[in-house]
Amino acid sequence: MAVLRPDAVRRVDDPLASSHRGVVDRRGRPVRDLRISVTDRCNFRCRYCMPREVFGPDFAFLPRAEILTFEEISRVARAFVAHGVRKLRLTGGEPTLRAGLPDLVRMLAAIPEVEIALTTNGSLLARQAAPLAEAGLSRLTVSLDSLDDAVFRRMNDADFAVADVLAGIDAAAAAGLPVKVNAVVRRGVNDQSVIDLAQHFRRSGHVVRFIEYMDVGTSNGWRLDDVVPGAEIIARINAEMPLEPVEARYSGEVARRWRYADGGGEVGVITSVSQPFCAACTRARIGADGMLYTCLFSTTGTDLRAVLRADDGDARLREVIAGVWAGRDDRYSELRARATDGLASGERRVEMSYIGG
Ligand code: SAM
Ligand code: SF4
Ligand code: SF4
What we know:
There is one protein chain. This protein is α/β, with parallel strands linked by helices and 357 residues long. The chain has a single domain (22-355), classed as Aldolase class I (TIM Barrel, Alpha-Beta Barrel), CATH 3.20.20.70. It has helices spanning 70-82, 101-109, 125-135, 149-156, 162-174, 194-201, 230-240, 304-310, 314-326, 336-342, 352-355; strands at 33-37, 87-91, 115-120, 139-143, 179-185, 207-212, 243-246, 256-260, 266-270, 283-286, 291-293, 302-303. A hairpin with a 4-residue loop joins strand 10 and strand 11. Helix 1 crosses helix 9 and helix 2 (101-109) packs parallel to helix 3. The protein is globular and about 60 Å long. It binds S-adenosylmethionine (SAM) and iron/sulfur cluster (2 copies). One iron/sulfur cluster is lined by residues 42, 44-46, 49-50, 92-94, 121, 143, 352-353. Residues 42, 44-46, 49-50, 92-94, 121, 143, 352-353 line the site of one iron/sulfur cluster.
């Protein structure tokens, strides 16, 4: 566990910290976003995330008793909000598999000044979008890697159809939720789907963001050759539908934004591999079991569940979180070339399905 360095911990009410309003890490980055994994289970087996050979019938998912309860998640969220977090994102595994998810959204939506977002594969949204919206969800991101049913079924490896996800997106829009669509692009797998996706969602009001395939975890057999750089994705779309760059709305915005020159809306690329954005990374992540990670590529975390269940009170929880964030020095993507060669043998990074992206 990182050592608490009081000099690096600035409290929300500290007038000297007015530009950050909270704790900052060793590189001066505040904590703004908390991504909360609510389950490590999923009904898909996307080849790039939970390949069936690894996540098969014998895979040991977390037992129920080890998963944070909604009350515990809510306590952790409030502690982070006290340190400057303004966006909570629920993720997984597949978060819509967690029973009673709207109840959790309702509890989190009661925290002042935060927006509650959800990342989902969309397969169960047709039924769940309305209760989630009603509970106070602010927005959602639906992952959809191709509109070609055969390609999509191969990618999710669980026989889900594109139509299920599109029905979920429609239900979310009908419930009044702003929707973004995320597509991970793998060369030779779905890169031919980029134009279709862009065309389909142009003028729909839903922004598509194309994500460079990342070397998260140790299960997906990632190779640099599989990555389609964001610049290439934008060039391909621009050749068919001319684009203009859009200014970032705030420092730390991960997607590079473009708009259609004819006013058809926006697309984005998330270039974690070709143009890393660690310098502005303000994200903390919690696994479903309450482990806190300060980087998507972390190999170790801090056990917040132990702190929650020791019942030392919320002040102690805030103190532990502040200490971890104050000690944070992560910039894996900036160091990727060296780090990919240099992962010590036996060292395992956490998996995307566990940490939630
Ligand atoms: N199951 C939900 C979903 O698919 O949206 C939420 C969890 S999933 C781990 C979150 C996001 O991570 C998804 O958009 C998924 O496409 C993305 N993702 C998973 N593995 C990835 C990888 N190796 N590189 C880039 N993105 C990845
Ligand atoms: Fe499940 Fe999401 Fe991972 Fe696909 S990307 S296997 S839907 S957690
Ligand atoms: Fe943030 Fe780590 Fe990703 Fe860099 S590599 S942007 S520090 S999560």
